[in-house]
């Protein structure tokens, strides 16, 4: 893991960190990206001037700020793509119908790298050796992700609003890739979120001014939003992020051979408890049916007795009281003897 190149977040330079993590080296600086942004601004100005420098459209264009960069360190996807063209690398939208994108959708683990963007925050997911790593600059270090849950991770990022691009081409040689082919990495401990000083003017959501972006950043780091959900009381968000969190934990266990964590054991216990609840419910239903049958048999017996009493009173009105009681006693005795047979 120490051989993997990873830059921690500095100011608003996530685009620089993203590119260097992708290429696995200090290939670009903020000055380099700013130069590319200025070149693209100039190219756009020249195209607009073709319609006349005195046109209202051209004057409005000059008054607008650059769409490729700003003073905070933001760079557009066009600048990212232009920087990758230097290395003959190409970006293709993950959710497009381009044939290579469809291949990535069907088999995400067979690709080489992904670049993800949300609210101007950029980060890289790359395969090194035969393993996948989340190289988000908002993490204190690389995060290992297994092939099994890579597709789940990408799907969840899309659900949260991330734009995902597949990177195609031949990457520069790097020592980490060669070493990880020989000796796969083991995640000893999970990386933590980098703390950014709000006074730095970090426009990419390091503060709490943009809760949606903060949640998405935590999601991109596999942390979910358990604490946020507890505060807001949003059960659906908690369930969605906890599913991803469990998937990422299982991903780490699968890749490193770790034993199940307490959270994964709790999930298993919850499933077992649901099964026990179902068995208890079946037993309760069976008891209620048995009680209903017993009650029905008792009511039937009483009804027969009452009907016989009514018949007796009508048909043997002239019989003495002693003879009447004898007849009733014999009939009740007969019913008691015949009742087990009917029940069986």
Structure notes:
This is ubiquitinyl hydrolase 1. Helix 9 runs antiparallel to helix 10. The chain is elongated, with a radius of gyration of 37 Å. It has 344 residues and is an alpha+beta fold. The termini are far apart. It has a six-stranded antiparallel β-sheet with strand order 1-6-2-3-4-5, with helices on both faces. Helices cover 56% and strands 9% of the residues.
Concise account of the structure shown:
With 344 residues, the chain is of the alpha+beta class. It is built from twelve helices and six strands. Strands 1-6-2-3-4-5 form a six-stranded antiparallel β-sheet, sandwiched between helices.
Task: Chart the SSEs and their pairings.
Layout: H1 14-23, H2 30-49, H3 56-63, H4 77-85, E1 90-93, H5 99-106, E2 113-118, E3 121-128, E4 131-134, E5 143-145, H6 147-159, E6 163-168, H7 175-182, H8 211-220, H9 226-232, H10 235-256, H11 262-315, H12 321-343
Antiparallel strand pairs: 1-6, 2-3, 2-6, 3-4, 4-5
């Amino acid at each position: 893991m120490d051989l993997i190149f990873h830059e921690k977040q500095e100011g608003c330079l996530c685009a620089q960190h993203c590119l260097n993590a992708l290429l696995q080296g200090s290939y670009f600086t903020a000055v380099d990206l700013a130069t590319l942004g200025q070149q693209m601004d100039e190219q756009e100005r020249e195209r607009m001037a073709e319609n006349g420098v005195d046109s209202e459209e051209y004057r409005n264009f000059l008054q607008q700020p650059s769409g490729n960069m700003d003073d905070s360190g933001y760079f557009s996807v066009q600048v990212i793509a232009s920087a990758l063209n230097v290395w003959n690398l190409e970006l293709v939208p993950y959710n497009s119908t381009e044939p290579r994108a469809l291949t990535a959708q069907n088999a995400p683990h067979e690709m080489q790298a992904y670049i993800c963007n949300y609210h101007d925050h950029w980060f890289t997911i790359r395969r090194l050796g035969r393993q996948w790593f989340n190289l988000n600059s908002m993490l204190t270090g690389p995060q290992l992700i297994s092939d099994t849950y890579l597709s789940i991770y990408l799907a969840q990022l899309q659900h949260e609003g991330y734009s995902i691009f597949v990177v195609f081409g031949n990457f520069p040689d790097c020592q980490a890739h060669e070493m990880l082919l020989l000796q796969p990495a083991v995640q000893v401990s999970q990386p933590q979120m980098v703390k950014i000083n709000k006074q730095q003017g970090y426009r990419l959501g390091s503060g709490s001014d943009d809760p949606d972006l903060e949640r998405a950043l935590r999601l991109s780091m596999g942390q979910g939003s358990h604490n946020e959900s507890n505060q807001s009381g949003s059960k659906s968000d908690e369930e969605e992020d906890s599913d991803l969190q469990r998937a990422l934990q299982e991903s780490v266990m699968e890749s490193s051979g770790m034993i199940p964590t307490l959270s994964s054991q709790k999930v298993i216990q919850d499933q077992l408890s649901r099964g026990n609840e179902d068995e208890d419910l079946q037993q309760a239903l069976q008891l209620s049916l048995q009680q209903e049958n017993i009650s029905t048999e008792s009511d039937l017996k009483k009804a027969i007795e009452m009907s016989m009493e009514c018949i007796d009173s009508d048909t043997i009105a002239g019989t003495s009281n002693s003879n009447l009681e004898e007849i009733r006693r014999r009939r009740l005795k007969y019913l008691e003897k015949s009742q087990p047979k009917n029940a069986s």
